[in-house]
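Hi U.,

Before I forget, here's the chain from the pilot set. I'm dumping it here mostly so it's searchable later in email.
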Amino acid sequence: MQITHREREHDGAKFEVGGKYSRIEVQELLGLPEPTTSGKWGTGYAREGDEFYVFANVGTAGRTGHDYKNEWVSDDVMQWEAKGRLGGGSRRSRR
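Structure:
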């Protein structure tokens, strides 16, 4: 996960602009008791409270070989293709 353009804060956790974060680091910053890379945190996105944390490749296939149609449509909006269990289609998300 990379944050750009501005600092974001969620439940007191501050993410540095331009910083790169692993799934574990995001959970640690959020103060979650047992950070993990399984369950919802082992997928391309996780919801915590009212926030979504998206771990998406743009322009390259992931480790499983899936090459979703993710792209930056502006400086602060990413269009990402959700997995089928979300109902298919693309979602748009602001950085």
